[in-house]
Amino acid sequence: MAERPDISAITVTHNGREMALRTLRSAIGAGGSASVEWLVVDAGSSDGTPEAIEREFDQVRVLRRDNHGFAASNNVALAQARGRYVLLLNPDVEMHSMTLGELVAAMDARPQLGLASVVQRDSDGRLQPSIRRFPSPLRSLGEALFAAHWPAVRTLQELETRPGPYEREHEVDWLVGAFLIARREAVRDVGPLDERFFLYSEEIDWCYRFWQAGWPVVHLPEMAVTHHCGGRSHGDLMAQLSHSRRLFAEKHYGRARTLGIRAALGLGHAIRIAVFGVASIANPAQRERVRTEWAGLKVILGRSGPPLGPPATAPGNPAADAKTASPARSRTLTG
Fold it and tell me: Would you say residue 335 has pLDDT above 90?
């Protein structure tokens, strides 16, 4: 391997041994002309995941640690990564088109780009929407009122569901973090992931900070990957998602905008409590959904903390909180 590899590929595992092995086989097989440093951070697996990876892949370096969250685990490897680019690769992603060498060439040809992702598809080959708009009170309200189901106001949400934007290269607000490639110089400017985001919204925060530092975030359609476990939160994790969205707003937005987002998130939970509460009269299975919506509402109202990780008041990374934007590169963020 070259002294400075083209890519440091980082995968965080927490159980899920067989899927993690499939991911690594796929990614290593798709290396192409790129020199790749393979780093796996195992966050407290109990199913033999790190041992299985070490048995099968001599070229993969496995770093073991307790589970302090997805962002914190990625940061362990980011601090040691030597590549010209870093690739955050979920342990449930397989690569089927284009090689990492071709992806490096695409990034080299676009030196202004800071962070990029590619087309994501689900296990059945269908497009998995991965382009997002930054949160706002209006978009949160649209989601609370089921904007995704009304064609006339479908853009009144964070999720980009129209197929057209996935077919062309363009700048975007933020991208789902299952497959993110970042330029080393940009990561130095932006800093590590914010470890207060134990799960969810860490990629929104990172993309927002890339834009603050003047490094564009771009969707590249040339490559496609399969993301097997994509989709929105469910079950007990709904409260974790609500906590992370509230934390993002409190970190980056003013008081009025934050209150607007919290109010819209709370309204969304309340509407669903009512809808699924009525449905549960005929279908008791819906009571679990009511319970999870209540859990999310309590988090938004400040009546309970997140189910996972530290509370919202826990200190984050100094580097993640620092104002790293340079006057020559920064832009005004809207959305």
Answer: no
Give phi and psi for 278, each to the nearest 5: -65, -45
Is 50 exceeded by the pLDDT of residue 45?
Answer: yes
Task: Give this prediction's pTM.
Answer: 0.91
Q: pLDDT tens digit string along 252-310?
A: 999 999 999 999 999 999 999 999 999 999 999 999 999 999 999 999 999 999 888 76
The rounded distance, in Å, linking the Cα atoms of 260 and 117 is 30
The alpha helices in the chain, defined as continuous H runs, are 17-29, 49-56, 70-78, 100-108, 137-144, 184-190, 202-212, 237-252, 255-282, 287-300, 318-321
302 Cβ neighbours under 8 A, 6+ residues apart: none
**What are the backbone angles phi and psi of residue 256, rounded to the nearest 5°?**
-65, -45
Rounded CA-CA distance 30/15 in Å is 24
Residue with tokens 């992931």: 193
Q: How confident is the model at residue 320 (pLDDT cuts 50, 70, 90)?
A: low
The backbone torsions φ and ψ at residue 244, rounded to the nearest 5 degrees and listed phi first, read -65, -35
Q: Is 285 helix (H, G, I), strand (E, B) or coil?
A: helix
**The two structure tokens encoding residue 221:** 């359609």
CATH 3.90.550.10 fits 7-231, yes or no: yes
Q: What percent of the chain has pLDDT over 70?
A: 90
Q: Which residues pair with 220 in a beta bridge?
A: 118
Domain boundaries, the chain: 7-231
| Closest C-alpha to 28, from 50, 9, 49, 46 | 9
Distant-in-sequence, close-in-space partners of 239: CB < 8 Å, separation ≥ 6: 292, 295, 296, 298, 299, 304, 306, 307
146-153 average pLDDT score? 86
